[in-house]
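Handout, section B. The chain below has 296 residues.
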Amino acid sequence: MPSLKDLKNRISSVKSTRKITSAMKMVAGSKLRRAQEKAESARPYERRMSRMLSSLASSLAESKTPVPRLIAGTGKDEEVLIVAITSDRGLCGAFNSNVVRETRRMIHQHESQNKKVSLICVGRKGRDILRKDFASKILFSIENLGRKGGMSFSEGSELNDKILALFNDGKFDSCYIVYNRFKSVISQIVTIKQLIPFAIETEADGAKIEPLIGLKFEPNQKAILESLLPKALAVTLYGTLLESMAGAQAAQMTAMDNATRNAGDMINKLTLNYNRSRQAFITKELIEIISGAEAV
C-alpha cells in the first residue's frame, strides 16, 4: 500500500495536470470558433466555383472542344500523388492517426495496382509517422501553416502552385487529398478528395448541372476555363486546409475535455484512498495505544 506522502504527492501531480488540460481546452475552444467560421464561410464559394466550372466544362464537351489538361488528365494512370493533411501538434485524440491510417491504405492499394506513389505531408505529426515507412516517397513536407493569425489563402495558393508545377513536370497523373472534414465539435470525418484531374460534377444539391448554352464568352470558353481552373484548385485546397484546421481544434478541445474529466475522477479516487489509508493509520495507532495501556 502506498504511503500517505506518496498519495498526497500523486494527488498534487494530477491536480497540476488537470489545470494544464483545462487551460488547453479553453485555448482550443477559442481557436475553434474562428477556424469553424472560416471553414463554413468557404464552403459556399467552393461549391459555386465547382458548379460553374462543371457547367463550363460540360459546354466544352458538347461543342467537342478539347478540355484543358487539368480536366482531361495526362491520359495515363501510372503515378499518384497523395497530399496527407494532419496537424502540427498532438493531444487531439485519433485526429492524426486516422489520416495516417487512410493514407497507408491508399498507398498499399495503389502499389498493389503497380502504380508509383508520391507523398506530400502537410503537418508535422503526419510527416513524422509516415516517414518511418515511406521516407523515400515524401517529396516535401510543410509545417506551421496558419500559425500566424490563422490560415491565409496565400498559404494554400503556395502549396497549390507547387502541386501544379509537379503536374506540369509530369511527376504524377492524379492527385488526391486525405484530410479530416469538420462536421461538428465531436465528429471529424476522414475524407478523400480528388484534386487533379479536376472532378466534373453532374449534380449539385439534388439538381442536374446543365451546360452553359446561349451565352457569349470572351475570349472563348476554353481560355476562360484554363484561366479559372488553377484558381479553382487553389480554392479547393484552401477549403480542405480550413476544414482540417477546424477539425484539429475541435479534436483537441474534445480530447482535453476528456482528459480534464478523467483527471477529476482520478483525484476523487486518490482522495478516497488517501482518506481510507489515513483512517487506517489512525485506527492502528489507537489500537496500539489502547493495547499498551491495557498491558500496563
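Note. The mean pLDDT is 85. Compare this with the example in section A.
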